[in-house]
Amino acid sequence: MTALTCQLPSPARLPRLPSMTLALLLAGCAGPRAPAPLAAGASATLAVLETTDVHANVVGYDYYKLAEDQSFGLDRAATLIASARAEFPNTLLLDDGDTIQGTALADYQALVKPLACSDTLAVYKVLNHLGMEGGGIGNHEFNYGLAYLNQVTGSHFEVDGVDSSAPRCAGPAFPQVLANVYSSKTRRPLFAPYNIIDKRIDAIGADGKAVSAVLKVGIIGFAPPTIVEWDKRWLDGKVYTEGVVETANRYVPQMRAAGADIVIAISHGGLDNSPYAPSMENANWYLAQVAGIDAMLIGHSHQLFPQTASTVAQFNLPGVDKVAGTVHGVPTTMANLWGKHVGVIGLQLRWDGAHWQIDKSRTTVEARAAQRADQSFVAADAGVVALVAAEHAATIAYVKTPIGASEFRMSSYFADVGDVSALAAVNLAQGDYVSRYVKANLPQYGALPVLSMASAFKSGAAGVGDYTDVAAGPLALNNAADLYLYPNTLYAVQVDGAGLLAWLEHAAGRFNTIDPARTTAQELVNPAFPSYNFDMLTSSDVRYEIDVTRPPGQRIVHLRYLGKAVAADDRFIVATNNYRASGGGGFPGLDGSKTVLASPDANRDVLIAAIRAAGHLKAADGARRSWQFARVATSGPVVFHAPPGKLALAQAAGISNVTQLQLDDGAGRGFALYGVDLSR
């Protein structure tokens, strides 16, 4: 075995490290202290811990509702991490990306009061505090642009638009890896593609005595190649991507040649067994089949793996064991999102005299929850809360800035069955912005109708509290952020009638296909189809029905504009966002080629400006519903899940065919079971 290699951050970062972390790093670099040679038969356990899709949720606090929420946050994940470290003799903590964007705190540091070069991003401060040892890069890391990402990661990107001669700024105290995103200028990876961590571990020798050893852990990172479309405004012409499998085949052999004992893929994506393509968003089903991958940390899908009872399609593919937590035999975990869970892969290692081997038969995989079986939550780590107290307080003060008022309550509890109260104001603001812009700047499109699409970003995917809910009365910035969660910019596309129909058909994939003859209960909503892809029109000029008894692609019926059936060659301008216009969500025909307006203004800012200009939102603004379900009688109940006790909100929105069937749906997540009568 070789001596431990010292890998310190740059000297400029050292004074900003927590004292304990700094002491450990310096102790590890005090000089050559090679462990004694190991005899064949030595064994060890290494627990690989994963956080993923943290989305800047450093503490359990909902900035949109201005209330504590114990169900998420790194402050509680920290407790799970501490528990695992107390249980296992050796642990390695890694993060799978989508770390720096997703809350008002993230937006505040990126857009409102930009971070100084010498300051460390709040979420990275917390990860440093937790002793994070390596991290990947997700798609949402690119949402604020390359210059910002370069700054907060303490990088030195050589790309257009970034001053490569500027000094490195503060960043995380752990290596970040990303292998499949390249600078167009240099043709080299934007980040280090991989890193080999010399991990000192406690092992048991063949004679049964404790012995120290060094395990060379190779980590390699991957992001969805589709970032170049989703964040085209930031990335076009500056970076390019390669497929996950091709990239792994290039670098994994290099990692082995460099001495990696084991290789862990930190891959920000899910599982998909569709025919492989280099642009595949969720390529890890194929990545697991690349020779030399010993374990996978995955994410992006905001799901939980392993989970024995999971009905999620990607976890029921051939070669996927949702009980043992393996993909084609490779130990794999996905730790949900927002710090709700921590993935734990207990690798069982044995030294054969020349190499460390993994005993997969004894390796364990689990995802540990911050919520206990009795529905209580583990305690928060007070050190995390104290570490970001100043940033947390500044964000709260900022989001309380008043912007107007509303005559009606805006919520997304029943968006899946037709309540558009949380979407109508967004569509109204987007449509007005585009109409005014077209009139002033694009006279060639002046005769075309302007429509607008919006979706319910929060519809229960992250738990019973994951809904938009804005009370009638005064509105502040936090309410606008609740209505429009992401830092998208407003785009407009030109589509024909056939394209509009295809758009709505794809959005209707939100629903399962209902069999009218079935007498047992049927789930209305397909949980694998995210609510942010259920785009809706909310205009009194447009009417259409969704027939959920028909297969996907054939569900939109009676699509009309101003009372007339929409023809295939009719033309429209549709207001949307950069993510959708550039291909996000896989909507047919939306690939960036139909964009007629790429606004620099954020959709949320457009909404805020509209509310300020109007002074208040009128009740009629929240009732602009364009669609309803096609009427059909079913032999059994059609059910969906929403928080209990909210039925009056559905009725207030004119949704009269919904009833609450059970106060508790029996799944242990706090949801009630509702029914929808499709015949009404």
Polypeptide structure, described:
This protein has about 675 residues and is an alpha/beta fold. The chain folds into 2 domains: about 15-390, Purple Acid Phosphatase, chain A, domain 2; about 405-630, 5'-Nucleotidase, C-terminal domain (5'-nucleotidase,  domain 2, Alpha-Beta Complex). It has 17 helices and 37 strands. Strands 8, 9, 11, 12, 13, 14, 15 and 16 form an 8-stranded mixed sheet that branches. Strands 1, 4, 5, 6, 17, 18 and 19 form a 7-stranded mixed sheet that branches. Strands 27-22-31-25-32 form a 5-stranded mixed sheet. Helix 12 (about 425-440) packs across helix 16. The N and C termini lie far apart (about 75 Å). The relative contact order is 0.11.
C-alpha termini separation:
73 Å
CATH topology of the largest domain: Purple Acid Phosphatase, chain A, domain 2
Helix content range: 10-25%
**What is the residue-mean pLDDT, rounded to a whole number?**
93
- Structural class, by secondary structure, is alpha/beta
CATH homolog superfamily of the largest domain: Metallo-dependent phosphatases
Report on the biggest sheet.
8 strands, mixed
Radius of gyration: 26 Å
For the record, the CATH architecture of the largest domain stands as 4-Layer Sandwich
Overall, the morphology is: globular
CATH class of the largest domain: Alpha Beta
Structure summary, number of beta strands? 37
Number of domains: 2
Residue stretches low in confidence (pLDDT < 50, at least 5 long) are 1-33
Number of helices: 17
β-strand percent reads: 25-35%
